Amino acid sequence: MDWHLLGLSFITVFLSELGDKSQLAAIALSGRSQSRRAVFFATAIALVLTSLLGALAGGAVAEFLPTRVLKAIAAVGFAILAARLLLFNDSESAS
Predict the structure, then answer these.
(1) What sign has the CA pseudo-torsion 66, 71, 72, 77?
(2) Helix 21-32 crosses helix 36-64 at what angle (to 10 degrees)?
(3) Are 59 and 53 in contact (CB under 8 A)?
(4) What share of the chain is helix, strand, coil (3-state, %, to 5)?
(5) Buried residues in 39-58 as b, exposed as e (16+ CB within 10 A)
(6) Where are the domains of the chain?
């Protein structure tokens, strides 16, 4: 097992999930429920399952497309998102 990759993946996901909507949902559910343990196990299983599906999907896509193409697609996608955030006014959706 590649321990460096395991640690890097853990730190990246852990930091990105702090304050995420999944955490806010877990807080809201545990505050209203009788069993905090059930909320913990359900949210933990859900997070593990979505991570598993993401890893499987990423592995499947990587089998068909070279890494360079995947990086290019990701870069273009992020550039489009950045351009939309910077150039287009969001006031139309607020009204």
Answers:
(1) positive
(2) 160
(3) no
(4) 85, 0, 15
(5) beeebeeebeeeeeeeeeee
(6) 1-64, 65-95
Look at the block and give the residue holding tokens 């730190």.
11
- Residues 17-32 pLDDT 10s: 777 788 888 888 888 8
Question: Is the full-model pTM beyond 0.85?
Answer: no
Q: Which residues contact 73 (CB under 8 A, 6 or more apart)?
A: 65
Give which of 57, 56, 26 is closest to 42, Cα–Cα: 26
pLDDT reading at 40 higher than 60:
yes
For 20, which DSSP code? -
